Amino acid sequence: QSGFVGSDAFGLRLSLDLLIAAVIGGLGNTNGPLAGTLLIMVMAELIAPLQNYALLVRGVILVAVLMLFPEGAIGLLRLFKRKSAKAASTEGSLAFEKVSGARLTGSGLTKRFAGVTAVSDFSLEVVPGSVHAIIGPNGAGKSTLIQMIAGLHSPDGGKLLIDGADVTALPAHRRARLGLARTFQNLQLIGSLTVLENVLLGISPNAGFFAWLSRNGFEREERERALRILGYLRIAHLAELKPAELSYGHRKLLEIARAIAQKPRLMLLDEPIAGLNAAEAREIAQVVRSLSKAGVTILIIEHNMEFVMSVSDRITVLDYGVKIAEGLPAEVRGNAKVIEAYLGTEA
Ligand code: ADP
Ligand code: MG
User: Fold this and answer.
1) What integer pLDDT is reported at residue 88 of this predicted model?
2) Which ligand neighbours the alpha carbon of 119 most closely?
3) Mean of the per-residue pLDDT values for the chain?
């Protein structure tokens, strides 16, 4: 309609209206500004008779919304949905879809940070479908090793194979496509998304635009799958909450849920029970066992000996970046070097 565009067209009132529309509707959500625009059109009609004071009223409304409903109209809707979702939640069992686990082979892996060799000439063979634990004191290089396997640190030496194929040079996302998923020692959840949406992040949409058009409802299958995964982990009733509202234990489960959403064949867990109470830890142990039973290969890093001894098939001990022992849980438990690394010498 406009034959001419000038700065006059974007005066204070319009700028304010656009801002209010987004805020009233709800930020961070596609439907928010849409709902907000409707609200503000109605509101503009209502306050039009106030003439010059209309701008003042707009300002008051903006401040009031920001203070009272920081998540806007959509946020309010969610609050209602959350209540109904709670009632509808079904608690599932820990039955995962069967997969064929991947084989992970590392040889001569080395990573240096200026002055410190975090991991030194490290070799490892993780058998498909097994639970393999890496233990060692703080700073031993365990997280660095996981970062190298996941593709977030490139090694300074050595080779990494998944099912015999060299992946040393592959970036993290390509390794993910090969079936590698991981959780982080310092949780990496997206705070502005709901629990369900965080799980959706792990699901790769298998559809282009036309497939999307032909299906009934945006991301419907993906959402159902994400809910099912949350159900397996018995946290489906928390689907509409934000991660920050969850207990630490549930947040850890959520990270595992997001990793499971990737349909992994190899899963890396970095300190999955650090900071959890005994009941939460038992729950994670159960999840690890079920995943393993479904065929997923699991490489786990953990401090808690009782946990490690109870879930792992094989244990590798790392100290100052060097492998000092490897074997069955019972073998490692009695190893003199391991006892020394953990408890110090008798002296
Ligand atoms: P762990 O997970 O076994 O506690 P890390 O792998 O985190 O140990 O650390 C091993 C060593 O590498 C430590 O000396 C640590 O200071 C160093 N390190 C780890 N990550 C980094 C990094 N991103 N930059 C520099 N040094 C690092
Ligand atoms: Mg660590």
Assistant:
1) 46
2) 1
3) 85
